[in-house]
Amino acid sequence: MSKLPLADHMHDVLLTQLMDGTRKPGEPLNIGALSRELEVSQTPLREALARLEHSGLVQREAHRGYFVAPAFTKREMTKLAAARELIEPAIAAESALRRTPDFLAELAVTIEELAASGEGTDADAFRQYWTSDARFHSLIAAQADNVFLEGAFLALSGHVQRFRLFMKAGHAHAGQAAAEHQRILDALSSGDPGVAAQEMLSHVRSASERALVEHEETRA
What are the φ/ψ torsions at residue 29 (nearest 5 degrees)? Predict the structure, then answer.
């Protein structure tokens, strides 16, 4: 077996463990211990951890190594939402002007997958929720065809992935999120940049509000 497929497999194994709660926020990820536990060499594990670090789900510190990214504080969630409220509506407005039938069709598929994810309760269902939500926003960012806006979006994307992962109650609201995505899709289809921007702003705010409620319930 080549190193690349094994690294991909290890990435999937670790990502599943993050999603099902096997690996907790802040938990150290010692490569030697993981190698023994998962019965693989350290090279594919390093590659997998580097990918997870790029996504924001894993962090690395000098002299400490890798560890699971910590859960968000309330302040971090609020600041992230504020940044998204500036960037993502602008991206949606640009994308509305550059919509194509193929682009709109791809978005529709992600909405179907997002809605379907709410029917399950296991790690696979949460993973479908996580990936379909991420793809919806990434497709819109790419369609904007603005390297500076997309760059700003990508700079936030790791933090947003971390937000999705640790705000797992979001999965319970998959139907509501899918409905919000559908309104964004309808606005994009209309070609009205102002409406597209407003629908995206409403969605980002709603997602943040749901996360803040969960954060407070978790601390209670």
Answer: -120, 80
